[in-house]
Fold this protein.
Amino acid sequence: MIYLDYQATTPLAPEAREEMLRWLDGPGGTGFGNPHSSHRLGRMASAAVEIARERVAALLPPGGTVTFTSGATESLNIALRGCEPALAGKPFAFGAIEHSAVRNTVLDLPVEAHVLPVDAEGLIDPQVALPEGLGVLAVMQVNNEIGTIQPVADLYERAKVKGALFVCDAVQAAGKMKIAEADVIAITAHKFHGPKGIGALWVRDGIELKPLMTGGKQEKGLRSGTLAPALCAGFGVAAKLALERMEEDAAHAAALWARARELFAGWQLNGSAGQRYFGNLNIRREGLDVARLMSDAREVCFSAGSACASESKKPSRILSALGLTAEQGRSSIRLGFGHYTTMEELEEAAQVINNAASQQE
């Protein structure tokens, strides 16, 4: 089995797993304490959580606070729903290819919502028209489906000029590149070799959000609930590893991308060839039946779109936003690779996929 679906999730780093096991010890062990308890085991668990918090914070801009959550979807809900009461009905704007965690949350709020278009490469024009009286601008740094890197630095500056809050979904950027400046940032551990079930919300100092849940106010009042030291510890180690090998991993992804472009020379690229994260390759082949392809090439794990939308059977709204037809969207696949992907695996997978695609001609 060859795994090429790194945008959906990444393999857990062995180092993260080892650290997590320390905080899962049962009877006779010392790692099972509640980090919110004041006795010795609780203080040990709390120390592990705070070490993890520092490691995760090192991936993010200075001048903010990291709150642990269950993942990026919860983080984005806290960010968008938590700021809405203070904005007195001001409009929200978000990019046309935002993740559903942003799009559906904004559309569920009692606010005026504006969708910012993208061009054929999936890029928002940095000078795009923004609504008057803007309250929130939400733009992701790297798109999960096509890998496009948005001009978030320019858009953040424009939000500041308008006095708006800038919310950034940095899920696909975290651990792979420097995270852009923003007011609120959401990330999740399992996209860069950490465990599933834990994410983080970074909030710039001086910004206040309303909590979504009432409870014990464990995370400085913003998020209630008992933290899992094992998940936090695994997240922290994954963040530390990502920071240490970011340059090396970026070069590796770029080399894989260059080879993949050669291996899939007869396919069309979806998204930008330059303004992108090179661990994401979204390509299409005219007339391709992707469902049949995935069945015939079942020894390779790849995607027909984002994992969270793969069961809908509808044309990708991301590819539609680029101007592709429904047929072009349905003939597209996404390959994701990274730290643990070898060149040999990529070449073998390409042979399997290309052979299966050729059988449809």
User: Anything to note?
Assistant: The first strand starts at residue 2 and ends at 3. The chain has two domains: 2-8+246-358, 14-244. Residues 2-8+246-358 form a domain with the Aspartate Aminotransferase, domain 1 fold (CATH 3.90.1150.10). The mean pLDDT is 95.
